[in-house]
Amino acid sequence: MKLLKRIPKPLLITAAALLITFAVYVIHGNGNVGVTELSISSDKLPKSFDGYRIAHISDLHCAKFGKNNQKLLDMLEGIAPDIIVITGDLIDTRYDDEAVGIDFAKSAAVIAPTYFVSGNHEIDNDDFDSIAAKLQSVGVTVLRGESVRLYKSDEYITLVGIDDARVITGKEANQKARDVIEAELEKLPPVGEEYTILLAHRPDMIELYANKSYDLVFSGHAHGGQFRLPFIGGLYAPGQGLFPEYTEGIHTVGNTNLVISRGLGNASFPFRINNNPEIVALTLKCE
Ligand SMILES: [Fe+2]
């Protein structure tokens, strides 16, 4: 208190005003969800899929945007998707509140066919089998090393999804997680002639997805790098550390395009800076 008394009053008032402005900016930014429009072209896509719309949701972490997540659902309606994909961390292991994620997925599935793969927060939950069963029962297709065909007229593309790796800590954690993901991919049928999309939570495994020749991959997990610095990008992401490369947008390795969502909610670190939550809306185009 003595120290505070020594600081000139105008300086104290300025510091308090700056602190309040920063808090308002952070709170507003964390609730200010937006739609990011992206497009990808391929000569492998059947003609019927020209203009096919995919809404991509990731890392909700049981967050709420409006009552019953109505704000997100209205935005999904506005995207007019052919399908919705959810790439994990819909729930959060720290909260006993899985209903928020499941209710949201149930409402999403009314808008368009919805497909889900686990993130670390689901696969690390001992109840994941029952969570997956609940998602299935509300009309969401849970892909656990499975593939489905998506039809448009009488043409189709393939959608596959893998479980995430359970959280591994300690020495060589990243390599161990990589081995798990590689083994999950190994269980899937090889990519054939048809355009094939993979749902996989972790973007930093892009080389593994490219090795398998997936045409398109959707991931999340990086939360946009949590704080986004001007001219630099994300500050930190799990599995990638400081100044991560894979935090948002489209990245291409070989013939594989990876779409990364910055996601919607937060995990252990409770807020984002300069990194508003997003829903990705991807349009496929025939070349
Ligand atoms: Fe997450």
Any overview of this molecule?
The protein is of the alpha/beta class and 287 residues long. It contains eight helices and 16 strands. The chain has a six-stranded mixed sheet with strand order 1-16-2-3-4-5. A six-stranded mixed sheet has the order 6-7-8-9-15-14. It has a two-stranded antiparallel ribbon with strand order 10-11. The longest helix has 23 residues, at 9-31. The chain is globular. The structure holds fe (ii) ion. Fe (ii) ion (FE2) is lined by residues 59, 61, 89, 119, 221, 223, 263, 267.
Short characterization:
The protein is of the alpha/beta class. The chain is 30% helix and 26% strand. Strands 1-16-2-3-4-5 form a six-stranded mixed beta sheet. The protein has a six-stranded mixed beta sheet with strand order 6-7-8-9-15-14. Strands 10-11 form a two-stranded antiparallel sheet.
Descriptive key words:
six-stranded mixed beta sheet; Purple Acid Phosphatase, chain A, domain 2; single chain; 8 helices; 16 strands; alpha/beta
The best one-word shape is globular
- Based on secondary structure, the structural category is alpha/beta
CATH topology (level 3) name: Purple Acid Phosphatase, chain A, domain 2
Rg calculated over all Cα atoms = 20 Å
Q: Main sheet, how many strands, which sense, barrel?
A: 6 strands, mixed
Query: Helix share of residues?
Result: 25-40%
Q: What fraction of residues sit in β-strands?
A: 25-35%
Give every kind of bound small molecule, once each: fe (ii) ion
SS field, number of helical segments: 8
Distance between the termini: 68 Å
Write out the strand line-up for the largest beta sheet, numbering strands in chain order.
Answer: 1-16-2-3-4-5
Strand segment tally: 16
Quickly name the level 1 CATH class.
Alpha Beta
**How many domains, in number, for the residues?**
1
Give the uncertain stretches in residue-range form. none
